[in-house]
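Subject: mismatched residue count in predicted assembly?

I count 461 residues in my input, but I want to confirm that the predicted structure covers every chain. Input:
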Amino acid sequence: MSRLLDWQLATVAAIRPETPRVHTFTLRLPQWTPHRAGQHYDLRLTAPDGYQAERSYSIASPPAQTGEIELTVELIADGEVSGYLFEGVAVGEQLEVRGPIGGYFVWPARSPEAPLLLVAGGSGVVPLMAMLRHRQRAGLRNPAVLLFSIRTPEEVIYQQELEALAAADSSFILLLSYTRQAPAGWAGYQRRLDAAMLAEAVAHLPGPPQCYVCGPTGLVERAATLLQAQGLPDEAIRTERFGPTG
Amino acid sequence: MPFINKGFHAKRPTDGAHKLPPGQYETEDFPVLTAGPTPRIPLVNWEFRLEGLVENPAQWSWNEFNALPMQSFNPDIHCVTKWSKFDTKWRGVSLDTLLEHVQLKPEARFVMAFSYGGYTTNLPLADLRNGRAFIGLEYEGKPLAAEHGGPARLVVPHLYFWKSAKWVQGLRFMAENEPGFWEDNGYSMRGDPWKEERYRSDDADAPTDSASFRL
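Triage response: the counts match. Full output below for your records.
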């Protein structure tokens, strides 16, 4: 009897560098299941002596991309799993995965027409990108804002695709904030998330948004608290936090 | 023949004094995972309740709760997101102590822990007895921080840490097992890290048809 979350052997179909420390792995799955934007897969590595390491990685691809998933992985210093993925894995090789997993940090959760506020720090943008890609592929045009905090220009994951999306879709607004170093001539935000920034992000939308916040703990704590202070109800604020996972 | 990733080896062998459950790795941080904003509970409004299948529901204010006998606990803890942390240092009130204050009805076999902010998680009653669970009030010698579940958190270290409900407000005793928040979202009803019961489909009695499995 086949269980729903069995481990399966995926084949690496493509590896795409997003930034120097972030790569996207396209995995072809023998048993692909439609996922919801925001869900993740578990990935398991097994050593010859039987030692196993597992990590969870958010799905970056939309459910309309059938038969395969894209996992965007950040290289962590001394990372046992990310280190192996960056150095030891080539196109055509196999990786054990199971999923999709997670039923709360998913969009759409209620009405797909409701305004959407996405707040990301660093690689926390990955599950939010799946939401934006799903929104685009499904032809949804609900007002949406992505407020994306990164340290430096080299760290903007999906930059070209996000800028192209913002240029092509007037219902989507991209707000970048560089916290350490901005590109030359940058006129946008250059600071950590604060109350004024979140108030402006909310003001771009025609009504109270559904909020999804993903990134390091400090950013998520701050953003969620500031969104509460904007008068948004707790149930409209969904969070996913992670420190580095190796 | 299990699948092997060629060239993959453990980078961080543990010191041998502690054992890691399958698929876990050791961290020295204390990561924070929560589905929504962190509730802030003023201590003057705080209360803790034991209710449901009890002859006499019990309730404590913050001061009353802090007057209960406290103990130190130094458990290893294991999060379903794969990190484990060894030798965490807590002070709190054992569930055995709390259970002395109520007369449970004979049919009580399961517990729903409920929290400020609306979080819930379900556990078998047996997992809360015999020194295996406590309400943690202090962590590393200080009052438990809100982001880690303060002012008070259920701690059941032999199960994955989502069972250790942050911001706990009380326990409801039940005859039948009912899913809490993450359990309703596809996570295990028991959550034993040594059996790697992460998801509902890892449970021995997991449903095998997708209709009864909402992930």
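The helical segments of chain B are 62-66, 95-99, 181-184. Marking this ticket as 'not a bug'.
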